[in-house]
């Protein structure tokens, strides 16, 4: 434990909360010939640095500032709603159906309230720490309380960059879109320690982990200065140096393989170890009480995931269309792969297996959605179906943790598979879209497959270590302050009654 605390202390020192609080933003518009809208097709899904809206006292500047396209704005708002649907009700019902009936409401509450709390923390300080300029590990305080996003005195809104030069969306739209990512990431963790944790412990842990793991990882992977900042060759090094650490490496994560899925899965696995196994685990049958609800939840997740992945293009264009199709097809083939694998192992394909296969495919295609070609997406989905099946069977036995709803087996394994395969199938020689190799001219090319794979592996490694250390220390703090686990009597009674005084179903 002393080693973990020492490691966290070192991490916090690196975070450098005293980092610059003001993002060096630019809203320069590039000529149409050098900034085609299709440039976003090859861009990794990441945050763009914010661009400050023109002042009402400077009409000339206002006239030349990029104006958001209503279609892009509308698509981003729709995508945001879809991601909300993924969490509440999608994830809540998916998880709820998998637990025993006496714990149904407890899981719904943990997801619903965690989602709500993280949205509030995101508005207060999370967005600023994740998506403003600070250092390579954490952002600054420039957007604390969302200061500067909207100026009520002049009625102006700040603009946020996309992946095309001269193309912007209202920053406030980007804020709310990314809020849903932060919230659902924390909600994913709930499944790993369902049915035995205190409700208050869930909320305190989520606040700590969100602050010290989610926000830094999001900053490291997704923060950069935006395409309009790259005005010439002479500024490239300076602009790259302002980006998050993993972005500087050139890692590709279209919509959250590292930031969302691996990040959450590692935290969940640590929690499963530290909280301990459920009473009767390995001796009693822990049968899902409603696979019907689980199937409904999985279906809502699949539909909502189009906002999650295609929305991460930040524009209603080619990149969004590619991500949309890849999300559709990879998920479908993952369902088939899981069913085939389950039939070979057990002689029968199950509804639970099909739903799990869908989620596995969705997880794996997340980092790859706009970063691989159509055939590459099918390979990603197939690999996820088979490997995540192993993750919830063979790997789970090897790990020996009571990961209640297989968060690591699906989200951890699926996220790692997707992140690594992105490095392979991004290559144009394998049908991928490639990546932007020069943000000054928006030129597109490909890195060597091995080189990109190493970069992807480094991103995975950083996420695993960072999330694991933060989670371990956070769980320990919660245990010391309020305790992690309910009593055995309360656990046997069920958390619906013992924690909330309600029952999901009348008898």
Spatial order of the strands forming the largest sheet: 1-4-5
Average pLDDT: 90
Distance separating the two termini: 46 Å
Please give the oligomerization state of what you see.
single chain
State the shape: globular
Please indicate the percent range of residues in DSSP E strands (runs of 2 or more). Answer: under 5%
The residue ranges in which pLDDT falls below 50 over 5 or more consecutive positions are 1-63
What is the β-strand count? 7
| Rg computed from alpha carbons, rounded to a whole number of angstroms | 22 Å
Estimate percent helicity: 55-70%
Q: In this structure, how is the largest beta sheet organized?
A: 3 strands, antiparallel
- Secondary-structure-based class equals mainly alpha
The helix-strand sequence is HEHHHEEEEHHHHHHHHHHHEEHHH
**Helix run count:** 18
Keywords:
mainly alpha; two-stranded antiparallel sheet; disordered N terminus; 60% helix; 18 helices; 507 residues
Could you describe the 3D structure shown?
The chain has 507 residues and is mainly alpha-helical. Helix content is 60%, strand content 4%. The chain has 18 helices and 7 strands. The protein has helices at 2-15, 59-64, 70-98, 104-131, 171-189, 199-222, 236-241, 245-249, 257-275, 291-310, 318-346, 351-365, 374-391, 394-399, 407-425, 449-481, 488-493, 495-500; strands at residues 50-51, 150-151, 156-157, 159-161, 168-170, 435-438, 443-445. It has a 3-stranded antiparallel sheet. A two-stranded antiparallel sheet has the order 2-3. It has a two-stranded antiparallel sheet with strand order 6-7. β6 (435-438) and β7 form a beta hairpin. α9 runs parallel beside α16. The longest helix is centred in the last third of the chain and has 33 residues, at 449-481. The N and C termini lie far apart (46 Å). The model is unreliable at 1-63 (pLDDT under 50).
């Amino acid at each position: 434990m002393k080693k973990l605390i020492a490691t966290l202390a070192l991490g916090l020192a690196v975070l450098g909360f005293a980092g610059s609080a003001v993002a060096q933003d630019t809203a320069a518009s590039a000529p149409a010939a050098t900034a085609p809208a299709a440039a976003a097709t090859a861009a990794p899904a990441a945050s763009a640095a914010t661009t400050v809206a023109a002042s009402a006292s400077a009409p000339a500047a206002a006239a030349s500032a990029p104006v958001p396209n209503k279609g892009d704005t509308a698509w981003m708002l729709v995508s945001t709603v879809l991601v909300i649907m993924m969490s509440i009700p999608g994830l809540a019902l998916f998880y709820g159906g998998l637990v025993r009936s006496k714990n149904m409401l407890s899981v719904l509450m943990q997801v619903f309230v965690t989602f709500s709390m993280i949205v509030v923390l995101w508005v207060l300080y999370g967005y600023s720490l994740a998506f403003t300029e600070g250092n390579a590990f954490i952002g600054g305080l420039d957007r604390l309380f969302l200061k500067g996003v909207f100026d009520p005195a002049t009625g102006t809104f700040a603009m946020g960059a996309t992946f095309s030069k001269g193309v912007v969306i209202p920053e406030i739209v980007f804020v709310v879109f990314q809020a849903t990512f932060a919230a659902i990431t924390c909600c994913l963790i709930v499944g790993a320690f369902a049915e035995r944790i205190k409700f208050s412990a869930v909320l305190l842990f989520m606040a700590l982990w969100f602050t010290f793991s989610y926000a830094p990882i999001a900053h490291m992977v997704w923060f950069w200065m935006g395409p309009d900042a790259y005005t010439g060759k002479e500024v490239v090094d300076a602009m790259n140096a302002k980006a998050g650490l993993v972005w500087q490496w050139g890692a590709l994560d279209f919509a959250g393989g590292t930031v969302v899925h691996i990040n959450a899965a590692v935290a969940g696995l640590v929690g499963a170890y530290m909280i301990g196994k459920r009473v009767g685990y390995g001796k009693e049958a822990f049968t899902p009480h409603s696979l019907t609800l689980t199937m409904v939840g999985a279906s809502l997740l699949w539909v909502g995931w189009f906002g999650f992945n295609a929305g991460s293009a930040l524009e209603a264009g080619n990149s969004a269309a590619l991500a949309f199709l890849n999300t559709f097809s990879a998920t479908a083939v993952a369902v088939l792969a899981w069913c085939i694998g389950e039939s070979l192992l057990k002689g029968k394909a199950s509804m639970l297996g099909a739903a799990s296969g869908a989620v596995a495919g969705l997880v794996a295609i997340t980092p790859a959605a706009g970063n691989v070609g159509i055939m590459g997406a099918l390979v990603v989905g197939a690999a996820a179906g088979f490997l995540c099946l192993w993750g919830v069977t063979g790997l789970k036995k090897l790990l020996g943790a009571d990961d209640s709803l297989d968060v690591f087996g699906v989200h951890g394994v699926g996220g790692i598979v997707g992140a690594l395969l992105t490095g392979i199938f991004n290559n144009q020689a394998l049908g991928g879209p490639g990546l932007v190799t020069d943000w000054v001219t928006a030129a597109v090319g490909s890195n060597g497959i091995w080189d990109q794979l190493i970069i992807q592996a480094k991103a995975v490694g950083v996420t695993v270590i960072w999330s694991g250390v933060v989670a371990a220390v956070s769980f320990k703090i919660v245990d010391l302050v309020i305790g992690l686990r309910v009593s055995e009597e309360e656990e046997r009674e069920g958390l619906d009654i013992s924690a909330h005084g309600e029952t999901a179903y009348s008898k």
